[in-house]
Amino acid sequence: MKYNSIYIWESYLELVTKAIIDFIDMHSIDEPVVNAGDTFFIYAISESEFLIQAPDSFDNIYFSYLVNYVVYSKQGTRLKAKGLTKGDGNLHPDIKGKNLLFFIPDTDKEYDNVYIVTDDNLVYKNDFGGSTSVINADITFELPEIDDSSLKEPFSIAIPEENKIKNEGIIGAIKKLFRY
Q1: What torsion do the CA atoms of 81, 72, 90, 96 make, to the nearest 10 degrees?
Q2: CA gyration radius, the chain
């Protein structure tokens, strides 16, 4: 798995794609998390497993928003997902430079947060109010076994150039491109 990747299991392509398009729509106007030129790639590992490659420009904060949104998308179905990235220090100085696995446990009822386990098995809870703290949890850093060389050609969602964004809005331009 590459950095800024999200592994999703027990789902289907239409739901994953819709979650990404809705995230782009929600975070492209008021909160410019996604920008013109950014591209999301969706790899089908199997009929029910997918790998999303988010833009390299995403820092840990934006990546946490994406993981949370994928899990709690507007579809009424809670997706199973975990995301890998490298700590940049934006969420907590002690995680800078570490491999991070972002996830939301099945027991979560707060919704506006994401949990992080480091490659040395320290667990943090990041709430979207700006607080990240170490918590006591029996969770280990474990990556899904994915052979990147076996991944087939991805489905890509590219954010159109700025002139199309101004005239049509990002989501309108994407829907035209993919007849979504």
Answers
A1: -20
A2: 16
